[in-house]
Amino acid sequence: MACNMSNVPIKKVILILADTLRAQNVGLYGKNPSPTPYIDELGKKGIVFMNAYTARTCTDPSTTAIMTGKYPLTLGLVNHGRYVTAEEEKNLKTIPFLSEILAQNGLKTAAIDWLSRWHKRGYDFYSGRILNNFDQSAPAFNGLPFPLFLRALDKFMVINFNRVFFTRFYYSFFPKPNVPYDPADVVVNQAIEILTKNKKNRLFLYLHLWDAHTPHIRPRGLKSYIFDTVEQTYNAEITFMDKEIGRLVSYLDRTDQLDDTLIVLTADHGENFYEHDMPLHHENLYEDVVRIPFIITHSSLPPAKIKGFVQHVDILPTILQLLHKPIPPNIDGKSLLPLITGEKKKIREFAYFEDITYRKLDFLKNTRRRGVLMGKYKYIETLAGKNKDLYQIIPKEDLYRQKEELYHVEHDTLEKENLIEKKPIIAKRLRTKLISIINSLNNKRLQSKPRFKTKIEKSLKVIKKAILQFPANEVAIAWTGGKDSTVLLHLIRMAFDGKIPFKVIFNDSTMEFEEIYKFIDKISRLWNFNVITVKHSEKELEEFHRTKDPEKKRELSRLMKITAINHALKKYKLRVFMAGIRWDEHESRSKEKYFSPRADHMRIHPLLHFTEKDIWEYIRFFGVPYVELYDKGYRSLGEKPFTKPVSPGGNERSGREREKEQLMERLRKLGYW
Fold this sequence. Notes:
Blueprint: E1 12-18, H1 37-44, E2 47-49, E3 52-53, H2 59-68, H3 72-75, H4 86-91, H5 98-104, E4 108-112, E5 125-126, H6 148-161, H7 166-173, H8 184-197, E6 203-209, H9 222-227, H10 230-254, E7 261-266, H11 287-290, E8 291-292, E9 294-297, E10 304-306, E11 310-311, H12 315-322, H13 337-340, E12 350-356, E13 367-374, E14 377-384, H14 387-390, E15 400-408, H15 424-445, H16 450-469, E16 475-478, H17 483-495, E17 503-508, H18 514-526, E18 531-535, H19 538-546, H20 550-571, E19 576-578, E20 595-597, E21 602-604, H21 612-622, H22 661-670
Parallel strand pairs: 1-6, 1-7, 2-10, 3-11, 4-5, 4-6, 16-17, 16-19, 17-18, 19-21
Antiparallel strand pairs: 2-9, 3-8, 7-9, 12-13, 13-14, 14-15, 20-21
């Protein structure tokens, strides 16, 4: 395949995003009869990527992935619309956008789009809403001026009769309905005006077309209203949009701008009709939602159909390489030029994608789906839990896995036969691959937090030094079930590829919170390790209960733990205890060292330099599970009789019974953590 970009310089780049356009409803991708003759014609003259996939099934994160070359997970932006957090917006501030890069390289930049917020970055001209104003942060469907229950009735009609009645009644029979987006003819009119003004300039023009998104307003009339299915009304919108794209291309050709214009056409995601789950919500990770059209055309590019997997993140590096501009480091995308030139048949072995639901009614529970497509098989896991856990950038590891799915997407194009039970080996391989992808992307995200990254690397260095100095079978981790020791366990798993090579010891005073016991059982199963539980003697427990002096009782509770520790040292022939204590946690620990010798063993403290704030940042960043007591006001967990929630303004250990420094010092010398 000949490809010489130097013969015809690229003067203009036009990126067309057809919101909610399913690949399977485009003629080039097999739809017959085709509702997209102009897009088909564009594709016949250019490069068509037959297996292109979104990384996230909502507009905010997917368009941002296009503009940055980074997966939503790497960006730290996984939510959409009003669910986007301040932290997520902050994560984007240091990441260069395609518009900014091209502006810095001398191109004029313009966008016809109304999402605003960070989407405005880097443009000399940003249109915003053209026809009239409405809440720009809400999805288009929320702009409809009738109640939620009518929209719910429409969902019922779609599921059972493949029709939308209430929404279309408003758009079919009201003379001037408020359309919640700028139609394609308005967008293309604005685009032609910009192109006319910049005919001699180098230009990057971004067009965001919303016609395929709900509500579907064409065609009008009683016959259409009664008889057209959801897909027919959707195709009518696509046909209207397609005609306007054709008008834009015709203008470029007529004004001698087509030959030196690079056109990139894609969608942010597809749409769900009545095949799976909630219709018209572009939810799920099936092909109708995650597979997208993707076309690149330029006069120097010979026509071709490319079958290798590609994703949104590959658009930015491809455009930059075609323009002979440097590609930013540490992006997830790969230039598609090796596929275009025929140098390679594939640049990636998988496609990875996510989905989060945002239900407005409490009885409809939200879920988070994550999936990977490798070869002909697709694996999807559905996680369920509290919204605050689902909506984190990395969801908590202990979320309930509600469902697993495995499909052969070539033989089962509608993805109806779940092979999860029939193909357990393939399912395990893809499940492992999905975990590996997520961990890799999260580690990339860590690069944007240098201070935090340095702290983690310091802890990992201590852990790895321990394994060099001591045999693994002589090392034990002191796990209390609390936040610090659980973070320590997670760090050890990070250091040893998901495994814990040391013994894990839980010192059970028999007075722990019931939540602690449940948590220890759950996490040991989740992370696949055995827990050695050590306890004090019955004689000690009897003395504890017989004592009436509260000060004596507190001391005895700790002495009992020391007895159990000393017993474990001898029974398991241990030379090392690794504990998750911190300098800032208690004055008695402020002089501890990473390697701290005791009379008969070594104490290793990889978390000494962490603060309480660091611990919680780590938990949120990596989705580390924690005991629900922390959500109820507890900040430091000891035995149940001696621990209570912290009052507002109190320090971390103010919920624990006060200990005299001399008591702590004596207990430490005896072997207390």
